[in-house]
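User: Modeling request: complex.
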Amino acid sequence: MMLSVDEALQKLLAGLPVSGTERVPLAEANGRVLAEDLAAPFDSPRFDNSSMDGFAVRSADVHGASRQKPKSLLVAGDIPAGKSASTTLQPGHSMRIMTGAAMPAGADAVVPVEDTDAHALANGALPAVVQVYTQVSAGGYVRPAGQDFTSGQQLLAAGTRLRPQELALCAMLGQGELLVHRKPRIAIFSSGDELLPPGEKLQAGKIYETNSFTLSGLVQSAGGEAHLLGTAKDTLADVKTHLDAAVESGADLILSSAGVSVGSFDFVRDAVESDGRIDAWKVNMRPGKPFTFGQYKNVPFVGLPGNPASAFVGFEVFLRAALHAMGGVRGWQRQAVRARLMETVESDGRESYLRVLIHVNPREWQVYLTGHQGSGNLYSLVQAQALLRMPAGVKKIRAKSLVDVWPL
Amino acid sequence: MMLSVDEALQKLLAGLPVSGTERVPLAEANGRVLAEDLAAPFDSPRFDNSSMDGFAVRSADVHGASRQKPKSLLVAGDIPAGKSASTTLQPGHSMRIMTGAAMPAGADAVVPVEDTDAHALANGALPAVVQVYTQVSAGGYVRPAGQDFTSGQQLLAAGTRLRPQELALCAMLGQGELLVHRKPRIAIFSSGDELLPPGEKLQAGKIYETNSFTLSGLVQSAGGEAHLLGTAKDTLADVKTHLDAAVESGADLILSSAGVSVGSFDFVRDAVESDGRIDAWKVNMRPGKPFTFGQYKNVPFVGLPGNPASAFVGFEVFLRAALHAMGGVRGWQRQAVRARLMETVESDGRESYLRVLIHVNPREWQVYLTGHQGSGNLYSLVQAQALLRMPAGVKKIRAKSLVDVWPL
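Assistant: Request completed. Predicted assembly structure:
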C-alpha cells in the first residue's frame, strides 16, 4: 500500500521519541528548545522609570511653564541609572534622573533635559536650581511598571525553540540557566557500491557521495546533531555493520540514503528487517517515492532515496518536522508563502515538489521553475530559492495561479 | 547631521574589511562562504546511465514487443551500480543494468524490470534469456550525460553562502576541501551601571543585562563568531578596558550596546574617541535612533542603543548586512515578503520597524501589531513573527495596504 504524504508523516511522527532534558547556561541556549514553562517573577519594568534623561517633577508644579515664563524648581537629588531615590519628592522640588532610572516617590512626570536650562551631560555637575521651559502631563515620559509584562504572566511555554529574542527575555527574567531538550542525535550513512568520498580519485562507473553532506547540514539546521558513519557497500553484512554502529553511537534516529538502484535499497531493507521492522516503504510523492521508515533494534530508522534531489525533498517533507518533534518543539509548522506561478507546470498526480526561483515584484512573489526537475539533478536544486508544492491529485497548475512555496 | 537608514548603511559597509580565507574539510563547510569560483570538471551525469533497474537493449530489437508477443533477448552481461560493461551490446542481446549504472556501448534504451519476465531483485541470479513485454523508444529510461551540468560550466561563484544543497554540489564535483572566508569575529560588550548578569540576585534599581545574549545569537545567525566581554561600568576607564580587551582578542568588529541612558552612551563615545573616531551617532529611524559607528584603534566599532528592541532592530537593519559583507558574501539581500496590513499604523516620519504577527490566509499573509511597540518592551518582540518596515517620511499606513515585512 502506498501512503499519502500526510499519512506517512503522521505515522512517522507517532513512532518518534522526544529527547530528554538538560540544564545549559543561557549563553549556550541559542537554537535549543525550552523544556519548562517560564512565567514572569516580577513586573517589567519592575518600577516606574524615566524614558528620558531629565528631571523628575510633580506635574502640578510645572503647569503653565514656557520659555517665556519658566518655572523654577530646587534640585533635591540625582538618580543615575541603577540607583533609586531614598526620599520622597517634595512640592516645588525636582530630582535629576537618567533614562531607565526609578521614579522617586512623589514625582509623576519627567521634564526632558532639553526642555530645561540644565546641561545635557549626565556626568555634569548637579545644579542647585533648574528652570523648566514646558509643562508636562501626569505620566509624561514615565514608563510605568508592568508595561511590558506583569508578575505571574506566562511568557514562554515548554516546546519553544529559543531565538536570540527569547534568550533576551530569559535574561530579563534573571535566568542564568535553562532547562532545554537534548539535541536529537541522528546517525547518517549512505549505501551503494558506486559511491566514492569527495577528494578521492574518480574511477570509471563511480560517482561521488553527496547525501551525507546534504543531510548533516539539514539535520543541524533543524536542531539535531549529525553523526556521520560513511558509506556502506551493497552487502547485507556491511549495511548491518553500519546500522549496528549507529545503534552503538547512541543515535536517536538512524538516517540512511540508499544507492539510487532499487537493488541497493533491497540490502538496506533486508538488513533493517533482520533485527527490526519496516513500517512503510513508498509514499505517493515526487520526487522521493521510495521513502522508508521503521525500526532497527528499537531505534527509529528512516531510509531516503539516493538521488540527491529526492533525498533533499524527503528531508524537507518528513525529517524537518520529525527533528523538531524529537527535539521537543510543540506545534511546529512550516511557514509557507503564497506566490504567483508564472508558467504552467505539470506532474503525474503524485504530491509534487518543484524547484523554483523567486522574483519579488511590488505586489507579490512570482515563481519560475529552475530547470530540469529530474531527481538526480542537483544544480537545479542549488539554483532554487523555494520548493513549490503541488497537492496530490493535481496534474496541472496553470500560469498565473496562486501557489504555496517553501523558501529554502 | 542625522543620517537616513540607507546613508548610514552605505557608510558603515564602506568601512568594513572582508575576512581572509582558509581551507576547510567539506563536512565542516556548512554555512560558510565560498572564496573561490567552482566550475564543473566533468559532465553530470558523467556518462549516459539507466534511470531504472532493468535491461539495456537496442530499441530496434524490442520494436513491437507486447505481453502477447514478447521479444526474447539473450542476457549477455550484468552491470551493477558502480561498474561499466567492457563489451559492446550486440544485436539481439541485452544486459541487466541497475539504476545509475553506465549504459553499455551499443545500447540506446532500458526496459524496466517490471516490463520483463525477470525477477525484480537485483541480487537474483542472472537469467540466460529475458522476455521483453514492451517496446521502448531510443533514449527511453536513459539519463543522458550532461543533463545536470556540463564540463567547464560555472556552477558556484565566490561569495556564495553554502547551504546543504551547495555542499552536495561541491561533493558531486569531488571537492574534499573548500576555500572559504574566515568567520568574522565580533567582540560584544554592554555598558551601564544598572546591568546585572542573569543568575545573580536582583538589587533595587538594577535590571538584568539582555543584549549580549540577543547579539551573540544574532551574530551566529549571520555567520559570525561572537566573543563575549561582559558589562562595562559607566566610567571612561572601564569602557576603555573593554574596548582594549576587544582589540586584543583579535576582533574584526567591536559591538557595544550602551546603557539606556544618554549619559551612559557618552562614556562610550568618549572612550572610542580617545583613540579612534566616531563617524555617525544618530540615524533617522525608530526604534534605534542612537546608532553609532566609527573605529577604535583601527578596529571598526558599532554602538547600538541599550533598549532591547532598539538593539535588535539595529542589528537587523545594519549588522546583519555588515556581517554578510565582512564574511565575504556578495550581493546579500534580505528576502522581504509582501503582506496585507490589517490595522492602521502610525509613526513620526522616521523609518520605522514595527513588530507584527502573521496570519496566513489562502491568498496572502495578513499582519497585525503584537502590542506595545516601546523600545524597552521585549515581550512584544518575542511574540513578533516579522518586522514591518515603514519608509522614512510615512506617518500613517492605512489598514488593507500592502506592506513589506521581514520574517524573523
